[in-house]
User: Fold this.
Amino acid sequence: MRTQVCIIGGGPAGLFLSHVLHEAGIASIVIERQTKAHVLGRIRAGVLEAGTVELLRRYGLAERMDRDGMPKDGTRIFWEGKDDFFIDVIRWTGRQMMVWGQTQITEDLYAARERDGAAMLFEVENVALHDVEASPFVTFEQDGETKRIDCDFIAGCDGFHGPSRMAIPADIRREYERVYPFGWLGIMVERPPMKELAYAYHSEGFAMASRRNPMLSRYYVQVPATDRVEDWSDDRFWEALHRRLPEHVHGEIETGPSIEKSIAPLRSFVAEPMRWGKLFLAGDAAHIVPPTGAKGLNLAFSDVFYLSRALITHYAEGSDHYLDSYSAMALRRVWAAENISWRMTRLLHVFPGEDPFDQKIRQNDFDLLVGSQDVQRAFAFEYMGLPFED
Ligand code: APR
Ligand code: PHB
Assistant:
């Protein structure tokens, strides 16, 4: 087989890239290790930056989001079971975010790709990248047969555990990482959510209230990284959540039996560069953020925006300007998202071993935020994500 761009990974990054390239008349093949049902079964964060919302609209993927998504003006922060603070992001940035699930976006991407007759291969095994510096090709096995795709470029959209990043030589690749000593225990409940998405700091640990739709709530509490789901009955979960949220909002929490319960570890990770020869990384293949800022999907989309523009400019105008600047440009946005995600994680979680000095600094960070419009404006600017570069 031969194509212009071989896309490894059929998650949001790979699917969105193949969609945008198709609109520009560029051929691609997506190869995915799992089944489509498996990809759609993953549960992940769902807050979209205004830039992501605009990309979905521009590429005809926004119909359901505009009908069922919940526009979000800002973020509520509860503090020590007392303060109830709202950061008015739309006021400080003039831009509106959207609460809309990644699963739904991925469903809409698959629908669009199937409608357009996309080439997508599922349940591929032993994917390997070859000759990425000169004449790239990808080999893999499917239904017991070895197959090969020759291409002009490889897009590594295969998530944190995929093989693409490893195709960058070890002496070139640099990796930066923080692994946090706690995770998020999340539950899904078929009950109306709290009216606003809310983060909570409490000296017992972080908690959060989110939503999937008007009848489906998503809640989280911080737990030690060593805890297992079996340690957490529904009752224990609800008790912890209530203790960490102020009493005056308890009436907004509608409890019920959990229909899903899982623990997600928290990690910050960046691999540089994001390009090696004809190989370009996008999304979780190159970087991971802790979920605190809900930046993961937004970064995958902004990488794909930069990468698709670079490939389109290459084919349409014969200019490699954007291909050559892809890694540096994408990484500027990535590091800004890593920065705000790390600072929000530090602000809102209890770290084992922290001392009174750490606690005073955290309290002062919150006091500055509440007390200063300048600090609120700066926070809102970063929380919205950097604007795309020309
Ligand atoms: N061969 C083919 N496909 C692979 C391989 C492989 N060896 N390894 C992994 N994949 C597939 C995975 O099965 C997955 O479907 O690559 C896909 C990568 O998808 P994601 O992990 O969802 O990553 P990405 O598309 O970059 O989307 C980023 O996911 O983790 C969240 O918060 C993050 O929202 C962000 C989004
Ligand atoms: C979620 O809805 O799952 C969610 C929302 C915001 C976050 C993290 C997770 O920061």
Q: What stands out?
A: The two ends are 35 Å apart (CA to CA). DSSP finds eleven helices and 19 strands in the chain.
